[in-house]
Design goal:
This protein is α/β, with parallel strands linked by helices and about 325 residues long. The protein contains 9 helices and 14 strands.
Length: about 325
């Protein structure tokens, strides 16, 4: 079926770019963090956010090497991964993804959370908009699902099926991460010695986003960065401490129409968020900022105006 999609992309000519070129590109986005006077101890840090690798056996080594080179070139002080290491909960070619992750390191540490593809079973929205156990779709069915999403009514409520609540961690992935520089944070906070909180939340698609637990160990004397895979969690975190919320999940809409407005609304709808405006880039609400990464990979290798992204946050007084 994937060969059929490839054929259609080549036959249409215009499909060559989003199918075979853009998904293999990697861009760098730079976002400043202007520190307050009492945050001067964090001056001149380079913080890198990675997200949504969606590793599978079809991901080329050349693409992985490109990511490592771009990250290392920035000399990060801190690396934060905001979920979806895997694709449909399948850990393929474990040695290759382990080698990739082992090559990523930073003096202040590497921290990560899980996305909805990273637990023992794959979870996504069902036809009613409830997060549920979903079999991996074939490419044609995925296209049909996207079309039905465009013409369906907007999501009106967040819900998680009972079947999802009992899903466990992906034990193979947890074991693999322990052999890398990455520390998994599941509803937990670590405070770095220089005075920065890193809080990681479980994924809300599985009913695991528990801020009351995650912030129990938060040191309110220091600023903090919050890792939460799904940007729909942003409103739920406004009453908790922290300066930045880093998310992914949407792939920047993956197929993004910047204009005209009606097409932009269509591409936002494809992300299937309750808060449809939070699909990509930087947002500010109150005293918090959220950055939604376009991510690195995709379970369907097709991107338009949504180049894979390494996000860099630089601190300065």
């Amino acid at each position: 079926m994937s060969l059929f999609v490839d054929f259609l992309s080549i036959a249409s000519v215009v499909g060559i770019w989003p199918r075979f070129i853009e998904p293999k590109m990697v861009s760098i986005s730079e976002t400043p963090w202007h520190l307050e006077p009492d945050q001067a101890h964090l001056d001149n840090l380079t913080i890198i956010q990675l997200s949504d690798l969606h590793f599978h056996k079809g991901v080329s080594q050349k693409f992985l090497d490109k990511i490592v080179r771009r990250v290392c070139r920035k000399r990060p002080d801190l690396i934060l991964f905001t979920g979806d290491f895997l694709c449909y909960s399948q850990l393929e070619e474990a040695e290759r993804i382990k080698d990739f992750l082992q090559r990523l390191k930073a003096p202040l540490g590497c921290f990560c959370i899980f996305g909805n593809h990273d637990y023992s079973q794959y979870v996504s929205r069902n036809r009613e908009g409830i997060y549920d156990l979903i079999p991996p779709p074939n490419p044609l069915r995925g296209v049909l699902k996207g079309i039905s999403t465009i013409f369906s009514a907007p999501q009106t409520r967040y819900g998680v099926s009972d079947a999802v609540l009992s899903i466990e961690h992906h034990q193979e992935l947890c074991s693999l991460l322990k052999q890398t520089h990455f520390q998994l944070l599941e509803n937990a906070t670590v405070t770095l010695p220089l005075g920065l909180n890193i809080t990681g939340l479980g994924d809300m698609a599985l009913g695991r986003c528990r801020p009351e637990t995650a912030f129990a160990g938060y040191n309110r004397k220091f600023p903090g960065m919050i890792l939460s895979h799904n940007p729909d969690s942003f409103p739920k975190l406004l009453d908790y401490p922290g300066d930045w919320i880093l998310s992914g999940h949407t792939h920047g809409e993956q197929i993004h129409f910047p204009w005209p407005k009606f097409l932009n609304r269509v591409s936002q709808k494809l992300a299937r968020l309750d808060n449809r405006e939070y699909t990509r880039g930087l947002f500010t609400v109150g005293d918090k900022k959220m950055y939604v990464s376009r991510g690195l990979g995709c379970h369907k290798p097709f991107r338009f105006c949504s180049v894979p992204e390494i996000s860099v946050i630089r601190t300065s007084i």
